[in-house]
Structure formats: C-alpha cells, structure tokens
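The following record pairs a protein chain with its ligand, iron/sulfur cluster.
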Amino acid sequence: MSNTAAPVLSVQNLRVSFDTQDGTVRAVDDISFDVYAGETICIVGESGSGKSVMAGSIMRLNNSSTATTEGKILVNGIDVLTASEEEVRGIRGSEVAMIFQDPMSALNPYFTIGKQIAEAYVVHHPGASKREVHDVVLAMMIKVGIPSPEKRIDEYPHQFSGGMRQRIVIAIALVNNPKILIADEPTTALDVTVQAQILDLMMSLQKEFGMTIILITHDLGVVAEVAQDVIVMYAGHIVEQSHVDALFHSPTHPYSWGLLGSVASYGANKRGDLYTISGSPPSLISLPAGCAFHPRCVHSKGSGNACMTVQPKLRDVGTDGSRSACHLTDDVLISIGRGSDRS
Ligand code: SF4
C-alpha cells in the first residue's frame, strides 16, 4: 500500500453527483486513492456503491449535462477532469482503456471485428500503413486467443461466442498498449468456465504488457485470486482500503465483515455461523446522517452517537497499511476483524 514511486493514477477528493427529477444523487463522495504501475487493484461493493461511476470518471465518460464532478484525477500528470477534449482523446486508449460487462454493447454489430480493432489502433497511429495496421490487428487477435485470426478477421461480432467477444473487446482495449486497464465487471455476463479463461487472459496480458489493472467486481472469489490491493466502497464512499491478504484475514470495517460473511470459506465465525448484513443500501439521494452504513451496522452502538452524527474519515488502522472509515477503536476493529469477537 505504501509506495515511494509516483502513482500512475491519482484520484483526489473525487465527488460525482447527478441531478435527477427526484433530487441530487451523490454517487461518489470525496474519495481519494493512488494506483501504482503494474499492480492489480480491485474495487468491490454492492450495486449503487459508486464504483462504476468512479471508473467512468477516470475516462471522463459521465454525462456532463447531468453530472457534476469535483476533485482531481491525475493520469500521467494531466488532470482528466479539466483536460481539453483533445488531451482526453489522447489519454483514452493509449494511457487508460476500459472494458465493460457486456461485450456485445461495446462492439458495433455492423463492422467486422478486424475493422474495429484497426480503428482503435489508427486513432493513435494516424500515419500507419494498411500493412502495419493489418499486422497489428492479427497480432492482437493472436495475443487474446482468437483462433484462425486470418479467417476470422473479417467476421462480425454476432459470429462469435460471448467469451470470444470479450476477447475482441480486450484486443481493442489493449491495441495501443495502455498503462492502465479498467475492467468493469468484465466476466459477470459470461459462463463460469469462460469467466476463468477471461481472467487468466487478463492476468497473462498484464504480465506481457506490464499494465496496471483496476478491476471492478462484486465477486470476492475473483478478488482473492487476482488483487493486490482492494478498495471497498459503500454508498459512494471508500470504507476500507487494504492489501488483499489483510482484507481476507483481518478486515477492518463492519461492512467488509458483512461482505466476507457471504463467502463461506471466509465469513464463518468460530461457531461456524455466517455473518450477514441486514437491510439494503441507502438511497443516494437521501443518505443517512453520520456513517451511511449505520442503519445496517450491528456495531454502531459500540461507538456511541458518533455513528449517527459524524461521517467517519478513512484512516490507518493497525500497522499493515489497512485503512478504514469507522468510529470503532483500532483494537476493536482488529479484534473483530480477526474473527475472535465476531458475533
Ligand atoms: Fe458501524 Fe459506526 Fe463503524 Fe459506521 S462508524 S461502520 S455505523 S460502527
């Protein structure tokens, strides 16, 4: 977690809100984190926790007519939020690329996959010859494991399976060798066996390209397999940031305990009971005062009224680099996180 190198991505005090007919949705509220070269960082949380909005902000994809975005997102020294359209176009694809859950919606059904990979390359290599582009496209198809690329380069997205389509999307994302790949639930829409293949592919391409991966997922099994660091989000806030081993062995936030409680191999207390979270996430239009998690938190009484009145700040807990946004004392968080007092 601590790192002396400069981060490849620095998100600073990011706030994103959307004006709707029902009121202002506070999707992301004052989050900050750094990401370093070559690491895999997972962002976890329930639907509506703000993780996808945060990721979209890094690519400046949120609708500017309804979204209000504050803070800084530094990529290669450029603040994405205030950069010119031209600077952002330069960043997309070559510095930061993104893949999404549904590969079909990311592909144009009217163009061959070869043309779509080529188009992504030509944006950043406008002077490339036809021969060069053709060779790059074939090489990318081979790298992502599309069989018979010479034959399939002229086929359309509907002629491929879901897993193959996601491989094509990955080829498009990586064709300009970006430093950062943001993957938003990239395997959720795929069969279980294909999910593992796509994750393996991403991990092997990460080694080959040396890129950083920011993986957004709700699947803690995936987190355990690939992450180095983990950010846990709840109601637009970061509630815990920990090394993956620390998160699974001694999580330091009551919400993390609940999330892990849904996974049998991690969540059982000493009696073998699973720890679960009651209730549902709050509306982002009218968040509870104090800690947004307090209506669902069985430990809120342990820190008195502060839970209902004061929003806890993310702070260091213990000595392993874990950070938690909770009013409970370090001793209590560490003790419960290790499972010895989990009720
Ligand atoms: Fe629970 Fe209070 Fe900690 Fe929030 S601050 S997670 S309500 S104990």
